[in-house]
Automatic annotation (TrEMBL):
Domain ABC transmembrane type-1: 20-301
Ranges annotated as spanning the membrane: 59-75, 145-172
Gene3D superfamilies (alphabetical): ABC transporter type 1, transmembrane domain, P-loop containing nucleotide triphosphate hydrolases
Membrane topology category: Multi-pass membrane protein
Domain ABC transporter span(s) in chain numbering: 332-567
Predominant place of localization: membrane
PANTHER family the UniProt entry points to: ATP-BINDING CASSETTE SUB-FAMILY B MEMBER 10, MITOCHONDRIAL, ATP-DEPENDENT PERMEASE MDL1, MITOCHONDRIAL
Protein name: ABC transporter ATP-binding protein
Keyword Transmembrane helix among UniProt keywords: yes
Organism: Paenibacillus hemerocallicola
Classification lineage: Bacteria, Bacillati, Bacillota, Bacilli, Bacillales
Amino acid sequence: MKTIRWIWVYVSKARWAIGLSMLVLVLGQSAQIMAQGSQKFLIDDVLVGKHYDKLKWVLLYFTLTYLTSYVLNWWGRYLTRMNGLCLHKHMGSSLMSVIQRTPVSSIQSGRTAKWVQYFTSDIQQVSTFVTDELPRGIQQLGGTLLLIAIIGWNSPVVLGIVTVFSVLYIAIGRYFAPIMRKQVREMQEKRGELLTKIEEGISSTREVIAFNRMAWEEKSFRGTFAIFFDRVMQNGKLANSQLLLSNSVQWIGRMAVLVFGGYSVIKGNVSIGAFVIVYQYSNQLFTNYQTVFNFAMNMSGQLAYSDRVKELFEQEKIGEGTRELRAPVKSIEFESVTFAYPGTERHVLNDLDLSLPTGRKLAIVGASGGGKSTITQLLLRFFEPSSGCIRINGIPLSDIRMTDWMGKLSVVFQEPFLLPDTIRNNLMLGRVGITDEQMIDACRSAQIHDFIESLEQGYDTVVGERGYTLSGGQRQRVAIARAMMGDPELMIMDEATSALDMETEQKLQENLDKRRAGKTTIVIAHRLSTIRNADLILVMHQGRLVEQGTHEELMAKDEAYRRLVSTMSENGAGSIGA
C-alpha cells in the first residue's frame, strides 16, 4: 500500500486525464461487445425467423456500434500514450532532481549504468503501467462486468460455470503473484548488473586491448550474462507453470459451457442465436478473466519496479536549505569541523577551525591525504561535516538555499567533465546572458582561445565522449575558461592546472590573477609556481591547519611549509607533497 500511495502522488496530478482514458476505453469495450450482440438478431430474426426486412436494421446497428468502438478505442490509445509520455517526463525530472540532491558518496558508490537504468527502464515501466496497463486493466474489468450481466440474464447456469472456473483462475493468480513479484525484482537487479558490465566493457576498451585481456573481459561478461539469463529463465518457467494451469482450467470451462449450451438448444430452452452469442460471450469472459488475471500478475511485477524507484526517491538527500543569500560573501568560517568519508572511520578533518578571508587568492597545501580537497568538497556541499559547522556570513551553510550558494561559485577539478558536444556549449553549459565576447575573453585568459580558433569548426567543434578528443591540458583550460565566465564571487581550483606545462601555466596564472583581483579564489595545488604568489597560504597536516601566511613568511618560519618545499626540491618533482 505504501508503494501505491507513493505512485498516487504523481498520478494525482494527471488523474483527470488518466480517468478520461479509462472511461473512453471502457466505453469502447462496451460498444465492441454490443456490436457482437447483433449476431443474435441476425440468426434468430433474419435467418431462422426469415424476417429479411430486419436485415438492414441489424446491419445499421452493427455498423454504428462497431464504428463507435473503433473511434473510442483509437482515442483511448492516443490518451494512454500521451499520458504515459507526460508522466515519464514528470517522474524523470523529479528523479534527476533527486539525484542532484543525493550525497556524492551514494553516487560514487553506485555504477553509472545503475543510475541510467532508473531512467531507461524502471521509470518507463512505472509510467507505462499507470497510464497504459492500468487503464487497459480497467477496460477489461468493465467489459467483464458487462459480460457477466449479459450472460447472467440469458443463462444463469452458464454464468455459474464460468464463475466457478474463474475462481480457480483467481486462486492460481493469488498463488503465483508474490513469487512473480520477487522474481521480477531479482531479474531487474541482475539486469542492472549486466548493463553495468556492458558500460564498463565499453569504457575500458582501450585498457583491455592494451593489456591483451580480451578473453578475460569476454569471460567476465559471459559470467554476468549467465546469471541474468538464469533469472530470466526462472521467471519464464514460473510464467509457463501459471499458463499451463490457467489454460487447463479455461479449456475445461469452455467445454462445460459448450456441452450445457448444446443440450439447452436440443431441449428447446434457448434459441440458436442466443446459444451462439452466449457461447461467444462466455469465451470472451474467460479471455477477460485471463487478461484481468495477467494484469494482476503484472501489477505485482510492476510494483517491484515501483519499489526500486521509490527507494531511490526516499534515500538520504542533501538538505536544500531555506535561507536566502543575496548579499556578497564576506566571511567563510569552519568551526570545529570534523569529517570522515562514508564507510571509513579515519577522520580526514579533525576539529578544524579555519577562517577563509574573502576577496583574496588563497592556496591550500599539504601532504596527500591532509584534507585539502575535502575542504572544497564540503564547501561545494558534496558532503556534510560529521560534526561542527561551516558558516557563510555567519549563516550555517546547510541552512542556505543551494541555488543561492552555488550561484556564487564555480569550480575546476583536476579531471574536468566535458559533454560530447561543441566547445561553445561546453563553455556555456546552458547559461544565458553571457555574450560571445565574454566567452572569448575568458578563453584568452585561460590560454585556450588560439587553439580553439585553429580548429576547422572553431568554437563549434564537437569534442568526443568526456572530451577525450582533447588533451588533458586542453580539457583543463576549457574548464578554467568555463569557470571564469560570469566572474563568480568564489572560484575553486582543485589541481586545475596539473596537466599544463610550466610556461602555459605561468601565463594562465598571470591572467587569472589580473582577472580575479579583489575576488575570492581558492587554489589547491602541489606546484610551487601555482601557489607561491597567493595572498595567503594555508598548510594542512593530518586534517588540521598547522600554518598560514605568505610564501615568504612561511619560508622564514622554517616549519611545515618549508619542509614541504625542501622535499619538493630534493625530489626534483616540482611539486609540494607529491
